[in-house]
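User: Alkaline phosphatase family protein, Anaerococcus cruorum:
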Amino acid sequence: MNNTPLIIISLDALGYCDEETYKNLPFLKSIIEKGTWIRKVESIYPTLTYPIHSTIVTGRYPIEHGVDNNLLVQPEKKAMDWYWDHDYISGDTILKNAHKKGLKIAAFSWPVSAKADIEFNVPEVSPNPVGTYIDHLKENGSGEYIEELQSVFGPFNSCDSQKKKDEWMANATAYTFEKHQPDITFLHLIDVDHQKHVYGSTHFAITDAIKELDDRLKRMFEKISKVKNLDEINIMLLSDHSQIDTAYPIRLNKVLADMDLVNVNEDGTVKEDWQAYFLTCGGSTALYTKEDNPKLVAEIKEKIESLNIEGIDQIFTTEEISDLKSSDRAKLWIEAKEGYVFDADARDFVESRDKEPGPRGNHGFLPSKEKNLAIAIFKGPAFKESKTIENEKIVDIAPTINKIYDLEIKNMSGSVINECLR
Ligand SMILES: [Zn+2]
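Assistant: Predicted structure for Alkaline phosphatase family protein:
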């Protein structure tokens, strides 16, 4: 059994396109120099945080692990539920298998980890639950331990800024390592993703957020180094996707409303009698139908094609979605051109250039689009020093961890990145 601690940190939305910024920052530069740096990591489709993090812990594609979107298909709800619970992932995961092997696991804001059977868990959960946020957080994670963390670091509030929340989680990660030395620690840092959604992918606020991220990591690992030499820890920094600038909304649910397949309430929610619905992924959107009806799907495809919508890049059929390994439930998947974003609203227009933009940056686009590529940096006893790899796939992360820690994860589609291993 390999007893080197492993710390996996997801740097949400830090991309290959940010390379000139991040590779020169003090902490990240030192990790790159002492470890294996993968400059371009191709993610999975859709490039959404929850499907990707499910792939990171399984080595399988969305069609195989079952998490094909951030959101469940609940168009009648004002705020749809996300795939919060770890049980949404079918089959083996790093968390489940490591726990079965008796390893001590900690996870901080890690997507799709609610109610996971692990020792220290502060999961990412709904920011607007029915009861109080703190009770909801405790019900979905390690209740008593969350109380302990709050007594040390103050309350973790869903309404705080993303920077403040990231800082809390990084502090909790260092504290937990100092006190309990988990075998595997997961941490998800979100501020770069948040800033890109707000400002677009190249604004100076993004450079600032990446500098703050570097500093946050540096301070966290300084604390960790007081209890264990960093050379004796396997550190895996990775991202899930990047973001592409978006300005112009497309509303394909308006097409469905015009075809009488959805009826809309005044507040924009969809009535329960919907027959078909496009669930947005930002840079792409997926069609779900209540009943299996290939004829209806063909009619919808024909209708959309007849509209010659400027911002549509590609339309994938059910068979093509299966080839992309994205979903076994979605009937059509539609990819936007750069600059365009799919908006869930079923009212007012199909495509607009004079509507105030929502998020100025987005993901969800095809993982092969260069501006959407992710990155990875590994350092520690398991990994080669001063090694650069140009291209890898995110589905290969779990098989690599599985090999290092012998977790016996079954049915993985990815393969081991042998090039990074000593
Ligand atoms: Zn993300």
